Amino acid sequence: MSEIKLVGVVGAGQMGRGIAQVAAASGFQVTLFDINEEGLDFALSFINKQLDKGVAKGRLTQDVADSTLAAISKTTNMQDLKDCDLVIESATENKEIKFSIFKQLDEIVKPGAILASNTSSISITEIAAVTNRPELVAGMHFMNPVPVMKLVETITGLETSDATIDCVDAVSEKMGKTVVRADDVPGFAVNRILVPMINEAFYALFEGVSDARGIDNAMKLGCNQPMGPLELADFIGLDTCLAIMNVLYEGLGDTKYRPCPLLKKYVAAGRYGVKVKKGVYEY
Ligand code: CAA
Predict the structure, then answer these.
(1) pLDDT at position 70
(2) Cβ atoms of 227 and 220 closer than 8 Å
(3) Which among 168, 107, 179, 108 has a CA at the least distance from the CA of 136?
(4) Could you tell me if the CB of 58 is within 6 A of ligand 1?
């Protein structure tokens, strides 16, 4: 763990930018990579705003905010990750995209460096198998919003070494997170439970049990959930929820995981949630 100084983050979306922010705030030097320059600029201005809010609320000093921002460099050239000690991949939840990124990272990043994935459900064993360093590949599953949520699920692939999983646990803890280790099975621990609940909320809506507000209020007021399941689906991204249901359905082979047709329909219509300003609700 002492040798982890430079952390690369692949993907400047809502998860990647949160991971970059928390890593930089925890004393790591961060290189944030994305193929999209505009996405990188948006991520850095978002992080800047979050830090400004923290300063305004007296949670951190201006100096700390400045040094956190200064610790993050951006790049559209993956070669710039070559000297990283640890790279955390946080790209789109799609197997082919992740396999392609890990093949490239394996060629580019220095030997001995750890390659972690923030995948929410794809097999770490399969991701590791496309590299020539499967013992150095692990899962680091952060929750959204990353700066707020306390958990990192760390996932041990079949070939992940003890030293690698100990190291990603230690990095997560240095980032102020509590670690829960999960086995490399579809959905790991959180999404094995959370996303079928969200899928069931779509079935309840589909079958007219109540309207969207009614379903969300039932779970917020009746079960003390901070967000109702449909609101949470919009927040996570309906496309991501559907991708996770498909992994559960295919990976576990049980029809109880079949994605709700209404969830599929929303995704087909491009209603991906908050990020496109329309999902179950409009924003
Ligand atoms: N980034 C950084 N900080 C954020 C934020 C964001 N996107 N959104 C909210 N916050 C911070 C706010 O700044 C605020 O901080 P302070 O209290 O220090 O001022 C704090 O969070 C609370 O925010 P708000 O007062 O604006 O709103 P809230 O009380 O309604 O909380 C919430 C917002 C934290 C998002 C809360 O609604 C919540 O916990 N929702 C559930 C989130 C959840 O379940 N996440 C897990 C999703 S599953 C996942 O990520 C895994 C996966 O693979 C799908």
Answers:
(1) 97
(2) yes
(3) 168
(4) no
For residue 21, the ligand 1 atom closest to its alpha carbon is: 2
- Distance from residue 56's CA to the centre of ligand 1 (Å): 18
Is 191 a catalytic site residue?
yes
DSSP state, 103? H
Question: Looking at domain 6-183, does it have CATH number 3.50.50.60?
Answer: no
Mutating to test ligand 1, I would choose from 148, 239, 283 the residue with most ligand atoms within 8 A of its C-beta, which is 148
Domain with CATH 1.10.1040.10 in the chain: 191-276
Query: Taking the chain (283 residues) in consecutive chunks of 10 residues, what is each chunk's mean pLDDT?
Result: 88 96 98 97 97 95 96 98 98 93 98 97 96 98 96 98 98 98 95 98 98 98 98 96 95 97 98 97 97
Could you name the CATH architecture of 191-276? Orthogonal Bundle (1.10)
Say whether 144 is catalytic.
no
Q: Which residues have a Cβ under 8 Å from the Cβ of 101 and sit 6 or more positions away?
A: 10, 89, 91
Q: Is the CB of 26 under 6 A from ligand 1?
A: no
Residue 237 · residue 278 · CB < 8 Å: no
Reply yes or no on whether 172 is catalytic.
no
Ligand 1 site, residue 148, Cβ cutoff 6 A: yes
Q: What confidence score (pLDDT) does residue 2 get?
A: 55
